């Protein structure tokens, strides 16, 4: 049974159709990439799945429950939690306190919540910064902090919105390893990303949006050879270059 099913989702802002009849599913344990050009509707879809927007029509089923009209808080409590493209840590609070905000969603006892927060900080290589002010961290660390906070909620599905944008190539490699480690710990991931070299080698499946429509869905190897995706987003040269990276052949 899929962990998440998006069925015929349409989201309109007035006359603008940001998502048009989009359907896809995510099986437990998968890393699914959500890609497409600027304005394709990726963030809007994220906002619908995570309860920040309610779709104009269609249905969202998470963990066998119809969550279409649920609030962001209700959906987070069920285990679908997102990060934001523009990270906004609580700057005047310490790194630990920021992660505690996530941990308290699942654990009321302070001692246990601190234990969870520390584990998540260590997993995200932030342990040594636990007492620093979040506002003082460089961008790469802020992105990891956002992941640690999300991880601390104990998610079943983690949705990452451009978690690697603005990072150095070393930081991107670290972020990729971290995403794989999170998946190996049993968390399913939906990842919006523009950095194809980062997402294509680790994704089990990729969903492609353009102009609000889903134009392709499949394993990365198929996606990079899809004529419509090459035309709309990847470009011929880039598609050739991606073929030389270690991309999975088929959906597992
Ligand atoms: N709150 C809103 N009100 C009105 N229009 C919106 C709103 N949010 C998004 N849009 C519009 O919906 C369309 C899809 O935007 P969205 O941010 O979902 O795309 P995206 O694929 O995430 O783009 P990017 O890669 O640049 O982040 C755009 O035309 C955008 O201007």
TrEMBL record:
Organism: Vecturithrix granuli
MF terms in GO: ATP binding; ATP hydrolysis activity; L-isoleucine transmembrane transporter activity; L-phenylalanine transmembrane transporter activity; L-valine transmembrane transporter activity
Domain ABC transporter: 4-236
GO cellular component, one term: plasma membrane
UniProt xrefs under InterPro entries: AAA+_ATPase (IPR003593), ABC_AA/LPS_Transport (IPR051120), ABC_transporter-like_ATP-bd (IPR003439), BCA_ABC_TP_C (IPR032823), P-loop_NTPase (IPR027417)
Keyword annotations from UniProtKB, A to Z: ATP-binding, Nucleotide-binding, Transport
Protein name (database record): LivG3 protein
GO biological process: D-alanine transmembrane transport; L-alanine transport; L-isoleucine import across plasma membrane; L-valine import across plasma membrane
Listed PROSITE patterns: ABC_TRANSPORTER_2
């Amino acid at each position: 049974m899929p962990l998440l099913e998006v069925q015929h989702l349409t989201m309109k802002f007035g006359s603008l159709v940001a998502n048009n009849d989009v359907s896809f599913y995510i099986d437990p344990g998968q890393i699914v990439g959500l890609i497409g050009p600027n304005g394709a509707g990726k963030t809007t879809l994220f906002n619908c799945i995570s309860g920040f927007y309610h779709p104009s029509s269609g249905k969202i089923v998470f963990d066998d429950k119809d969550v279409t009209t649920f609030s962001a808080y209700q959906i987070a409590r069920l285990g679908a939690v997102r990060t934001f493209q523009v990270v906004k840590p609580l700057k005047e609070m310490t790194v630990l306190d920021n992660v505690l905000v996530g941990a308290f969603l699942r654990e009321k006892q302070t001692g246990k919540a601190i234990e969870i927060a520390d584990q998540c900080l260590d997993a995200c290589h932030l342990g040594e910064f636990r007492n620093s002010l979040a506002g003082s961290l460089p961008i790469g660390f802020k992105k990891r902090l956002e992941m640690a906070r999300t991880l601390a909620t104990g998610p079943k599905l983690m949705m990452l919105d451009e978690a690697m944008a603005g990072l150095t190539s070393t930081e991107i490699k670290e972020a990729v390893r971290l995403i794989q480690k999170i998946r190996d710990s049993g968390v399913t991931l939906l990842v919006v990303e523009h950095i194809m070299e980062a997402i294509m080698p680790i994704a089990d499946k990729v969903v492609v949006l353009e102009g609000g429509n889903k134009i392709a869905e499949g394993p990365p190897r198929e996606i990079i050879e899809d004529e419509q995706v090459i035309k709309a987003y990847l470009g011929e040269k880039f598609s050739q270059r991606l073929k030389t990276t270690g991309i999975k052949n088929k959906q597992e």
